[in-house]
Design brief:
Elements (H helix, E strand, L loop, with lengths): L1 H12 L13 H10 L4 E4 L1 H15 L8 E4 L6 H11 L2 E7 L6 E6 L15
Length: 125
């Protein structure tokens, strides 16, 4: 995900600790690391931080009390995952999109109450 490479530099610039995950996506290890390292903001693709983590938390009954925000990109994140993460775990999901040549962030959105009621506009007229 292209938004990650810029973030890896910004954290230390503002005095934050960065916790990097190994290559294995083991949700038990991930949730334990989030809590042990006091991770408050995390980034990844919706399947990893949305569906897989949410499913693990629901099945295990565990929580990630330190985690406050998750920034996802690289794929669409279902509204149900964003709602469940916010309502069940107090984790706000932010959606980012970018490309390396954009250095790297292009758009950044949050899911807010009432967004489901908004109607899109057909731009193909």
């Amino acid at each position: 995900m292209s938004i990650l490479w810029g973030s890896i530099y910004v954290g230390p610039m503002v005095g934050s600790k960065i916790v990097l995950q190994d290559q294995k996506w083991v949700m038990e290890k991930r949730s334990t690391t989030i809590e042990a390292e006091n991770v408050t903001i995390s980034m990844g693709v919706p399947t990893g931080f949305g569906f897989n983590l949410l499913q693990y938390l629901e099945e295990s009954g565990k929580t990630v009390p330190t985690l406050k925000r998750v920034v996802v990109g690289g794929a669409a994140c279902p509204a149900s995952i964003m709602t469940d993460m916010q309502e069940k775990h107090g984790v706000y999901v932010h959606i980012a999109w970018g490309m390396t040549e954009m250095s790297p962030l292009g758009t950044y959105n949050t899911f807010k109450d009432g967004m489901d009621d908004l109607e899109g506009m057909n731009c193909s007229k």
